[in-house]
Amino acid sequence: MTDCCIIGGGIIGLSLARELAGRGLTVRVLAREQGRATASWAAAGIFPPAPLRPDSSPGDRLTGWSDLLHREWAKQLLEETGIDNGLQACGGLHVAAGARGLAALETEAVHWQGRGARCELLDAAGVATCEPALAGAIARGSVMAGYLLPEEMQIRPPRHLEALESSCRKRGVTIDSAEVRELVVRAGRMEHVATVSGDVRATTYCLAAGAWSGGLAEQLGLVMQTRPIRGQILLLRLPRQRLTHVINQGLEYLVPRADGRLLVGSTIEDAGFAATTTADAIARLSQVATRMLGDLPGAETEQAWAGLRPGSVDGLPCMGRAPQVDNIFISAGHFRSGLHQSTGSAVLVADLITGSRPTIDPAPFDPARPTLAPTAGAPPDSVAAYLARAAAEAAN
């Protein structure tokens, strides 16, 4: 019998599978969707600075630990698979215009400095010196000031997922395409997973199905509001790369790739499970690129896509043993940080599954924590805040 069956083949499930297999366990992954259909494939791959401090919040501690692990995993994955996941420090330039934008900019800079991140405030001239391609935006008044986070990194999500899957297979992980119908529980234990192609049995299970985890968790008697929030991204191919840094303005961003491609994102939409693009959103993203960079002669729209981020009520993922079923664990609800937090999440949940002493305190992520109690008719608080911010920025 398989030691662990992981329900979910996205970044969280594959990272956990790799970690468990590296510890000698036999692992089977049931992937509802694979490759580009997963939320992390659709991500931009921006890793903000994540300094570890004694006073870091639980979420920041998980991100900071994961950030360190990503550097180790990138080297290991390259050695194991020959695939370079593109992890690199490129720096992030955050810019703003208008009184409200400038006030928010200063507040954010103070926040980053308080977290121990290197952060340099820049006036318009400083922004132009840092990123000459924004000189036109400064002249047009679209950018008035900014701050630089030199430690911000980027990763290539499709390459990272490809490397993870390859590493898992090399470590003996079985990855099956499977649509889960039911989680069958008997006498307080998971007996098997019923799929359209048959039953799957294991000693231990982990639910890591992203935005779909909430619906499956209900079968375990667990309320977990992993609300799907759609994000759309536009990919442009430029004759030459114009940028050297990731550019952030509010919730919008430009991510330059070394091969001349430019990612433009993103939206935050309450659209259910519709992982589809819309003409209006893609047109708005195209306008973001021209607002920042002006006309882009020779630029081609290569593709556009959408992903579903699994939101959580209090902004923290659920990780730990399900409260009423003693052989199933949860790892879900990472919202916009799933890719960044995937390595630390994998190690933490693997520690819990194997009975090892966790490196960080798992209590704040307990699936049964009081802050996850549902409020009838209301969206998750952390997601509602992002939706409100996205609506306000779109209105301006």
Topology of helices and strands:
Layout lengths: L1 E6 L3 H12 L4 E5 L14 E2 L10 H24 L6 E2 L2 E5 L1 H17 L5 E4 H7 L4 H6 L4 E5 L3 E2 L2 H14 L3 E4 L2 E7 L2 E7 L2 E3 L1 E6 L5 H5 L10 E10 L8 E4 L2 E5 L4 E5 L13 H15 L6 E11 L7 E4 L6 E5 L5 H17 L26 H15 L1
Parallel strand pairs: 1-2, 1-13, 2-9, 5-15, 13-20
Antiparallel strand pairs: 3-8, 4-8, 5-7, 6-7, 10-11, 11-12, 14-17, 14-18, 15-16, 16-17, 19-20
Number of domains: 2
The N- and C-terminal alpha carbons lie at a distance of 57 Å
Any idea what the shape is?
globular
The CATH topology of the largest domain comes to: FAD/NAD(P)-binding domain
Q: In total, how many beta strands?
A: 20
Question: Can you give the mean pLDDT?
Answer: 90
Low-confidence stretches: 376-380
Radius of gyration: 21 Å
Q: What's the SSE pattern?
A: EHEEHEEHEHHEEHEEEEEHEEEEHEEEHH
Within the largest sheet, what's the order of strands? 6-7-5-15-16-17-14-18
The percent range for strand residues is 25-35%
CATH homologous superfamily placement of the largest domain: FAD/NAD(P)-binding domain
Report the sheet with the most strands, covering strand number, pairing sense and barrel closure: 8 strands, mixed
CATH class of the largest domain: Alpha Beta
CATH architecture call of the largest domain: 3-Layer(bba) Sandwich
What is the structural class? alpha+beta
